[in-house]
């Protein structure tokens, strides 16, 4: 059954301050990459703390269809036997990537130069998302990938003789586009270089190095030589900062809360949510900073208190791209105004997240002004409550569950089933921490 077959609604009521210590599920971006790179590598790759959410399971089924052997060795552990130098299997059926933009865009780069003909499809949301941003640079490298006239999936990949390396300046800050070009570069002649307008998550660069690839990367530029083979390795996946963000905000806006989030990924190209919350005055203590699987992690202790509004511009948006919705809730609970700008990319996520946040905040009674590239939120501490449409977007659903902490009446959230794409067990975990969430199927 796909995540969207049954409509799931939540009713969430304000709860007591949050207490406890938890490790949220593994990082989604890193779990996808561990599967993809392990599938291509020579030999075995062992993955620990793999995120078994629907998005990463779509990647898992796809790599199996391409010939990788994946075996579950524990509740969140996998052994991948890579395809290495052998030819890829030729799946007859399209690869169904569900709701997962990361899978679709990275597979385009991964498969463009590998002598396969296949089709990539996704659910209704993924089939609306822009793919030209990936197909254009790949076409410059010589790839043949056909999309609909609107530049959306289904995508048909055709075999080509050889790709050529390129030097590509990305028009937007996107780790998915950067990753797709670098992954295509692995099979291309010569060198492939990406240059970004602002730094974005560098998980691909770090993990390719862990798989033995020679790759150079600085703040905005990454470069690799084609023709390199990956070697299987061991990857321990940090807890996902994007999932932890909901708990960070929940605890930060609820006085009396004291929560410890264990082994959270704090990669500096990804940790803008921590910068933003700390600038707002949130009490977040970084403990035991260390490295796990080539990625920096820390235990984050967050205590509830008063927050103040801040300005969030394009650079910080790129470092907190998936956490902006959660930051909107923190902003609404803060004193003073928060202005978010340079955030157009949020319009092309699993839903139009700018629109969804503006509508949702207004439905709760929060004053918010919609702008072309962001919004202005007037912080007001608490709000009434109301009904929200998550429109099948996991992060919007979780965001408004957190908003219920400051609602005088309850918050009803429609269409929450896709929370399992990134945070399976969210409702149960939140209940363990003191949240009151009732689920109903529609
Ligand atoms: C991701 C990159 C980001 C992010 C997405 C995961 C990745 O997308 O929003 O959830 O794993 O590379 P963009 O590259 O489109 O910004």
Layout of SSEs?
Layout: E1 8-13, E2 19-22, H1 28-40, E3 44-48, H2 54-65, E4 69-74, E5 77-81, E6 95-96, H3 101-111, E7 118-121, H4 132-140, E8 144-146, E9 155-158, E10 163-164, E11 167-169, H5 175-185, E12 188-189, E13 191-195, H6 203-210, E14 215-217, E15 221-225, E16 234-236, H7 241-252, E17 258-265, H8 272-279, E18 283-292, E19 295-303, E20 311-312, H9 314-319, H10 324-333, E21 337-340, H11 353-364, E22 368-371, E23 374-378, E24 386-389, H12 394-403, E25 411-414, H13 426-432, E26 436-441
Parallel strand pairs: 2-17, 3-16, 6-7, 10-12, 11-13, 20-21, 24-25
Antiparallel strand pairs: 1-25, 1-26, 3-5, 4-5, 7-9, 8-9, 13-15, 14-15, 17-19, 18-19, 21-23, 22-23
Describe the structure.
With 442 residues, the chain is of the alpha/beta class. It is built from 13 helices and 26 strands. The protein has 2 domains: 8-26 and 239-441, UDP-n-acetylglucosamine1-carboxyvinyl-transferase, Chain (Alpha-beta prism); 28-236, Enolpyruvate transferase domain (UDP-n-acetylglucosamine1-carboxyvinyl-transferase, Chain, Alpha-beta prism), CATH 3.65.10. It has helices at 28-40, 54-65, 101-111, 132-140, 175-185, 203-210, 241-252, 272-279, 314-319, 324-333, 353-364, 394-403, 426-432, and strands spanning 8-13, 19-22, 44-48, 69-74, 77-81, 95-96, 118-121, 144-146, 155-158, 163-164, 167-169, 188-189, 191-195, 215-217, 221-225, 234-236, 258-265, 283-292, 295-303, 311-312, 337-340, 368-371, 374-378, 386-389, 411-414, 436-441. The protein has a 4-stranded mixed β-sheet. A 4-stranded mixed β-sheet has the order 2-17-19-18. The chain is globular, with a radius of gyration of 21 Å. The structure holds shikimate-3-phosphate. The site of shikimate-3-phosphate has 10 residues, from helix 5.
């Amino acid at each position: 059954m796909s995540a969207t077959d049954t409509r799931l609604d939540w009713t969430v009521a304000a709860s007591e301050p949050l207490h406890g210590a938890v490790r949220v599920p593994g990082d989604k971006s890193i779990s996808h990459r561990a599967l993809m790179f392990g599938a291509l590598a020579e030999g075995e790759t062992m993955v620990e703390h793999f995120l078994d959410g629907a998005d990463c399971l779509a990647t898992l089924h796809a790599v199996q269809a391409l010939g990788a052997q994946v075996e579950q060795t524990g509740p969140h552990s996998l052994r991948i036997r890579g395809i290495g130098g052998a030819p890829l299997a030729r799946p007859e059926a399209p690869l169904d990537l569900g709701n997962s933009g990361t899978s679709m865009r990275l597979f385009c780069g991964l498969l463009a130069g590998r002598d396969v003909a296949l089709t990539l499809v996704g659910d209704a949301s993924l089939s609306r998302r822009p793919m030209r941003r990936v197909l254009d640079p790949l076409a410059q490298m010589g790839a043949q990938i056909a999309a609909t006239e609107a530049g959306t999936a289904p995508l048909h990949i055709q075999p080509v003789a050889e790709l050529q390396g390129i030097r590509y300046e990305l028009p937007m800050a996107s780790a998915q586009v950067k990753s797709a070009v670098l992954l295509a570069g692995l099979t291309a002649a010569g060198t492939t270089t990406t240059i970004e307008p602002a730094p974005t998550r560098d998980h691909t660069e770090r993990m390719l190095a862990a798989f033995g690839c020679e790759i150079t990367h600085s703040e905005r530029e990454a470069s690799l030589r084609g023709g390199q083979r990956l070697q299987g390795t061991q990857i321990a996946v940090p807890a996902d900062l994007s999932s932890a963000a909901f708990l960070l905000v929940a605890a930060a806006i609820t006085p009396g809360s004291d929560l410890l989030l264990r082994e959270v990924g704090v990669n500096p190209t990804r940790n803008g949510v921590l910068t933003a919350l700390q600038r707002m005055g949130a009490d977040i203590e970084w403990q035991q900073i260390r490295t796990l699987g080539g990625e920096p992690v820390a235990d984050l202790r967050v205590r509830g208190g008063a927050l103040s509004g801040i300005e969030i511009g394009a650079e910080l948006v790129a470092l907190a791209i998936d956490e902006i919705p959660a930051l909107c809730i923190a902003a609404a609970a803060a004193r003073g105004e928060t202005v978010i700008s340079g955030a157009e990319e949020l319009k092309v996520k699993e839903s139009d997240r700018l629109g969804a946040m503006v509508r949702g905040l207004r439905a709760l009674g929060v004053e918010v002004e919609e702008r072309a590239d962001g919004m202005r939120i007037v912080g007001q501490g608490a709000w009434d409550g109301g009904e929200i449409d998550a429109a099948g977007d996991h992060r919007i659903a979780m965001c408004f569950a957190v908003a219920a902490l400051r609602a005088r009446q309850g918050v009803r959230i429609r269409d929450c089933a896709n929370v399992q794409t990134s945070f399976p067990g969210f409702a149960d975990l939140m209940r363990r921490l003191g949240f009151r969430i009732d689920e109903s199927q529609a």
